[in-house]
Each structure stands twice: as structure tokens, then as C-alpha cells.
């Protein structure tokens, strides 16, 4: 997902500006003119300068055709964005439901969504999602003692722990 | 101390973790598109729950194995498993095409081991000596050293320098979130309690290196279709004769790798490019390079493995990472209470020696494990990426969650993944960003602490001979290349004037 460097440069000029603005709100140390805002201000300024270099470089190459945004393969933007959206959505679902549903429900659902989107074999994907989640749970919860939430399955926590 | 350190390694847990990490490193390194840094990033959450010795021994073993196994798909499929193998991928693939896959892979395997052992010995000998020198360093020298690291990170990043600077700034900004290390003032926290503690290093790391790769796959899943693997037979046939013939080039590759690895910002990929170029330049038949000869493969594969040992020198002695891989290792060192710096050799001497010995042992283990990996490569590659990628997403999610025990860490990982994806797609290198995350607190803390000591007098940064030397090197990296370009430009204009 390529964007023209004029856009990329502009993004970092704006980001650098926001960083400088926010950093200027921070106080300085008592005895010297430097403080917690000094370093971010410096970073913001450098970002703006580098952003300007990136944005200006294509302007100097006269005659070159402009492609504001492009995809790596011949696919439509809705297709590309939906692929990214599915990955983000599956993770967002996990984040939103982990504490309510518990790991052993949230993770298989997220994994299955991703597997069916990429692999498109229902039975195999379902099995991989369930077994994969169970293995991840066994390793991190049982062996590494990570406190993965049980959520809805709290009453069955004893049965499901080996 | 060495015997104590060796005994610390010889426990069933440590050896078991090393073997498991070796297998994991070989598998991940052999999968095209996955970098060694990504393999280590996914391993970090697991190392969090291990004791320091097995955790660190596992991580260094993983690094050594992943760098080597990147050679396997390079030789058989012309797809480097890791960027460190990219320099000689054409050479080794052409050898495979001409029926010499065994020679290409066998030479790569033995030279990787030789390079790794050379790097380990350099590390074991140089690190404590440099540690003694580093004990004389004050916050002024550390400030300049970190500046040198930041400068080199940009200087050696591939592609546009301006994009390298932006990448570094992103890393520095990520590290600025949370409490200011000197005054304790909240910065960019937007009054949220999660951000007060700063953005977690591990979620950021996993996001930048692993999650970004998943997004790239999501965008172009068909690009990962693999051609059939060529038949592999005769591993090691003629290898030892070639190694005897090329002993100087291999040794040179080891030296280049160790030195380049020790330069902050440079890594295994750059080391192997330089070693390949140096061998080609000295060769009596440079025109044959690129047609499938073993000369370039031998020196470059020794070089990329040696660079890991070289990179661990500044990482352990000064806490300055040599490349993104050692930036991750520094993160693990901090996590395990082995704060890198010269005092680590005084306070945790046995432990750090055990880590160095583990790295040496890992490079010896490359030989038997490498042979098995080459033979099993077909099966490793048989796992479809459409299945592998969702499982990696699962590992990324749980890996981020495991360290901080909060879903906010997963949010951080997701955002870092999207940033990494955008950066890679638009030619912004990732390595400066992760170096920025590691170096930002060192630069800022030493800068402000020094100014507090001197009541704001900036001349203190040039008040000590060592500091002046480091400052001059740092400034030279900025000033000398443009000056050289200007001189060349002036020379080119002269005849027409």
C-alpha cells in the first residue's frame, strides 16, 4: 500500500508540528531551561525537516507522473481495505471480548475468522482454531502462568485446567 | 568464573530451552519473509517467564540459528529467509540450478558456524576489556555514544536517509510516551493510566516486526505462493576442499562481520553485503561472481553470523544496540535485571559469561541442527502461509498480553503493527525505529542529567577527552560524506568550466 512521498512527507510535517505543540505545553526543570519538553520538541522539529525533504524531493523531479496511492497487486481498494479490516477486526474483537467471553472463546473465534478469510476450508480451519487456541492456552496459562481470563467459562475453569 | 558460567549452562532447563529455541529459530528463519528479529520478538514474551540464564541462552541461540537458516530457502528457492542472506542469494541459487545445492548449503552451513564461533570469541575477549574502558565513562560519554548510535542507525539504513530519520524519530517518540526519566513529568499520556507507564517495549516490538508482516500478507496473500523445491543431494560434497581454498576470504568475512556488527546501526545484512563485495573485489575472476560460484557464499555467510557476536559487544558493554536484533536482546537483558553497561561484568560477571558461552555453544550447534534443517526444509515450507499467518496473529496477541497482563498491550501491538506496515510499504526502514526506542532514554537521561550537573552549561559535553573523541566521530559521520560528495561534484565540474 504505497502512498506518494508528497503525502508521506506532509503526514510527518503535520505529526512533527503536533509533537512540537504538545511538547511546548510541558514545564521546564527548576534550574535550567531544559525539561521534559526539550527532547520531544527536538524530535518534532527533526521530523518536520525530514518530512519536508521527503515531500519536496518528488517536486524537484519534474515531468514524473504522480500516483498518489497504489496497491502492490492488481486488486481494488475495497478488497485491500477489507483484508486489512478483517485482521484489525479479529484483533479488535479479541480485545473487546476477552474479559467477557474469556480466552478460550475469544481466541478461537478470532483465529477462525482469520483462518476462514485466508484459507477458506471450514473444517480444517475450525480444527486449527480450536487446537491452536488450546495449545496457546496450555503453554501460556499452564506452563508460563499467564493469567488469561476465563470469562464465561469461569465455572468450568477447574475442568479445563490440566 | 568461566567454569561457574559453564556449569550454569549445563542444566537440563537451559539446555532444553536452547534446543527448543534452536529448532524454533531454524524453522522461522527458513520461512521466507520472516526475519530473525521477528523470531526473537515472538520469543521475548516466553523468555519473560524463564530464569535469566535459560532465557538469554535461548535468545542468543535463536539469533544464531535464524541467521543461518535464512540461507536455506535462499539457495533452494532464491528467496532469502532473512535479509541477512540477501547478499548472496543469487549466487547460491545459481549454484543450486547448476546441481551444486549441496555445495552451496554445506559451505554456507560450515562458514556460518565458523563465523559465529569467530564472533563469539571476539565477544568473549573484547567485551570485558572494553568494559574496563567503559568504567571511565561518565554521562557525557554515554550521551555521545548514544548519539553515535543514533547517527549510525540513520547512516547505514538502506534507502532514503530522510526516511531513516523519520523512522528513528518514530522510535524516539514511542519512547517519550510515559513519565519523563529525569523529572517524572507525564508526557503524551493524555491522562490515561495505561500510557503513564510508557508504551511496552515488547508489544511495540511484536507489532513492528511480526504484525506488520501479517498485514503485508493480508494485502497480497498470493505473492507467497512458492515454486517447487529443487532436489537436494550430495550435502558436503567438495565443501572441505573449497573451505581450504577460501580460508583467507572466510577469515576476512569473519573480521568484516564482527567489525560491522559492532557498529551501532549496522547489522548482519550489511555485513554480508560488504563481505561479498570485498571477496569479489579481491578475486582474480570477479566476472564469475553472480554466475553461481562458492567464493561469495563462503565469506558472506561467515560474515553475517560473525556480525551477531560483534553486535553483542556494544550491546553488553554500553547498552548500545548494534542492530535491531541486539536491540531486542538488550530489551531481554533489562527484563532479566542484567542492565547492560560496564558494571554488568563486575556485578553479574558469571551470568554474562554464561550468556557469551551459550552463544559460542549455539554456533557449534549450528552444524548438527543445520544438517537436520536442510533435510527437513521441504516440510517446513509445506505449511501454507494462509494457516501460518493466523497462528502468528494468535502468538502476537497472547505474546503482547502475557507480559503486561492487560488488553491495552494488545492495542499497542495492533497500532505498532499498522505503523510498521505503513512504514515498510512506503520504504521507511524499521531498524532505526527500534534502535530509537532503545536509545531514547539513554540519550535523554544522560543529556538532562549532565545539564543538571553543570547548571545548564552546554560546554560540559566537550569537557573530557573521551567525550571530544566520540563527539568528533559522531560529527564526522554527518559532515564527511557530504564533503566527499561536494569534492567529487567540484572535480566533475572542473573540466567543463
TrEMBL record, chain A:
InterPro entries: DUF1468
Coiled-coil spans in chain: none
The species this protein was found in: Vreelandella songnenensis
UniProt entry keywords in alphabetical sequence: Membrane, Transmembrane, Transmembrane helix
Transmembrane segments: 7-26, 38-56, 77-95, 101-119, 126-144
Domain DUF1468: 8-149
Pfam family, one: TctB
Claim: Zinc is one of the keywords in the record: no
Keyword Kinase: no
Protein's recorded name: Tripartite tricarboxylate transporter TctB family protein
From TrEMBL, chain B:
Classification via InterPro entries: DUF112_TM
Listed transmembrane segments: 6-27, 56-79, 100-127, 133-153, 165-182, 194-219, 311-334, 354-377, 389-422, 466-484
Keywords: Membrane, Transmembrane, Transmembrane helix
Record-linked Pfam families: TctA (PF01970)
DUF112 domain ranges (all copies): 15-435
Domain of life, source organism: Bacteria
PANTHER family linked: TRICARBOXYLIC TRANSPORT PROTEIN
Name assigned to this protein: TctA family transporter
Protein's organism: Vreelandella songnenensis
Amino acid at each position: 500500500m504505497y502512498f506518494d512521498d508528497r503525502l508521506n512527507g506532509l503526514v510527518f510535517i503535520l505529526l512533527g508540528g503536533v509533537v512540537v505543540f504538545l511538547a511546548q505545553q510541558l514545564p521546564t526543570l527548576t534550574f535550567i531551561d531544559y525539561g521534559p519538553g526539550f527532547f520531544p520538541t527536538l524530535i518534532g522539529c527533526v521530523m518536520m525537516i525530514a518530512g519536508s525533504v521527503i515531500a519536496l524531493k518528488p517536486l524537484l523531479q519534474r515531468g514524473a507522473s504522480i500516483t498518489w496511492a497504489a496497491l502492490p497487486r492488481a486488486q481494488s481498494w475495497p478488497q485491500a481495505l477489507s483484508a486489512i479490516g478483517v485482521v484489525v477486526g479479529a484483533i479488535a474483537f479479541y480485545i473487546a471480548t476477552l474479559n467477557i467471553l474469556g480466552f478460550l472463546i475469544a481466541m478461537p473465534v478470532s483465529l477462525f475468522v482469520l483462518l476462514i478469510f485466508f484459507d477458506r476450508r471450514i473444517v480444517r480451519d475450525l480444527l486449527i482454531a480450536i487446537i491452536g487456541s488450546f495449545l496457546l492456552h496450555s503453554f501460556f496459562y499452564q506452563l508460563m502462568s499467564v493469567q488469561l481470563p476465563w470469562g464465561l467459562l469461569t465455572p468450568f475453569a477447574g475442568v479445563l485446567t490440566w | 568464573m568461566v567454569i561457574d558460567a559453564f556449569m550454569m549452562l549445563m542444566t537440563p532447563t537451559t539446555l532444553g530451552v536452547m534446543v527448543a529455541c534452536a529448532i524454533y529459530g531454524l524453522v522461522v528463519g527458513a520461512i521466507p519473509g520472516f526475519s530473525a528479529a521477528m523470531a526473537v520478538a515472538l520469543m521475548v514474551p516466553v523468555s519473560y517467564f524463564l530464569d535469566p540464564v535459560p532465557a538469554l541462552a535461548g535468545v542468543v541461540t535463536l539469533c544464531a540459528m535464524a541467521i543461518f537458516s535464512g540461507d536455506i530457502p535462499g539457495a533452494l528457492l532464491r528467496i532469502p529467509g532473512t535479509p541477512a542472506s540477501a547478499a548472496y542469494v543469487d549466487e547460491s541459487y545459481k549454484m543450486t540450478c547448476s546441481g551444486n545445492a549441496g555445495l552451496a548449503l554445506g559451505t554456507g552451513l560450515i562458514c556460518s558456524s565458523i563465523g559465529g564461533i569467530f564472533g563469539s570469541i571476539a565477544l568473549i575477549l573484547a567485551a570485558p576489556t572494553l568494559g574496563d574502558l567503559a568504567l571511565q565513562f561518565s554521562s557525557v560519554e554515554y550521551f555521545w555514544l548514544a548519539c553515535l548510535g543514533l547517527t549510525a542507525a540513520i547512516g547505514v539504513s538502506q534507502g532514503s536517509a530522510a526516511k531513516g530519520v523519520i523512522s528513528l524519530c518514530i522510535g524516539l517518540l514511542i519512547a517519550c510516551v510515559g513519565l519523563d526519566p529525569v523529572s517524572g513529568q507525564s508526557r503524551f499520556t493524555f491522562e490515561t493510566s495505561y500510557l503513564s507507564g510508557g508504551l511496552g517495549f515488547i508489544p511495540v516490538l511484536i507489532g513492528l516486526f511480526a504484525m506488520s508482516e501479517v498485514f503485508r500478507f493480508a494485502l497480497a496473500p498470493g505473492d507467497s505462493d512458492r515454486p517447487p523445491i529443487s532436489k537436494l543431494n550430495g550435502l558436503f560434497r567438495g565443501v572441505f576442499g573449497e573451505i581450504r581454498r577460501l580460508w583467507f576470504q572466510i577469515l576476512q568475512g569473519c573480521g568484516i562481520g564482527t567489525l560491522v556488527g559492532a557498529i551501532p546501526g549496522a547489522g548482519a545484512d550489511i555485513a554480508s553485503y560488504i563481505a561479498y563485495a570485498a571477496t569479489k573485489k579481491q578475486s582474480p575472476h570477479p566476472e564469475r561472481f553472480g554466475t553461481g560460484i562458492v567464493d561469495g557464499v563462503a565469506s558472506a555467510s561467515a560474515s553475517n553470523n560473525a556480525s551477531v557476536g560483534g553486535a553483542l559487544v556494544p550491546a553488553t558493554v554500553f547498552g548500545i544496540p548494534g542492530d535491531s536484533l541486539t536491540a531486542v536482546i538488550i530489551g531481554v537483558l533489562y527484563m532479566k535485571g542484567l542492565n547492560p553497561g560496564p558494571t554488568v561484568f563486575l556485578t553479574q560477571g558469571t551470568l554474562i559469561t554464561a550468556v557469551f558461552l551459550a552463544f559460542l555453544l549455539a554456533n557449534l550447534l549450528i552444524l548438527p541442527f543445520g544438517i537436520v534443517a536442510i533435510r527437513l526444509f521441504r516440510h517446513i515450507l509445506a505449511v501454507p502461509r494462509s494457516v501460518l499467518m493466523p497462528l502468528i496473529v494468535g502468538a502476537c496477541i497472547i505474546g503482547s498480553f502475557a507480559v503486561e497482563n492487560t488488553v491495552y498491550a494488545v492495542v499497542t501491538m495492533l497500532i505498532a503493527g499498522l505503523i510498521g506496515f505503513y512504514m515498510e510499504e512506503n520504504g521507511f526502514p524499521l531498524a532505526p525505529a527500534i534502535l530509537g526506542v532503545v536509545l531514547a532514554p539513554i540519550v535523554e537521561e544522560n543529556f538532562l542529567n549532565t545539564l543538571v550537573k553543570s547548571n545548564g552549561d552546554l560546554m560540559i559535553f566537550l569537557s573530557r577527552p573521551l567525550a571530544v573523541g566520540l563527539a568528533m566521530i559522531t560529527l564526522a559521520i554527518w559532515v564527511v560524506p557530504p564533503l566527499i560528495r561536494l569534492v567529487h561534484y567540484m572535480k566533475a565540474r572542473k573540466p567543463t568550466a
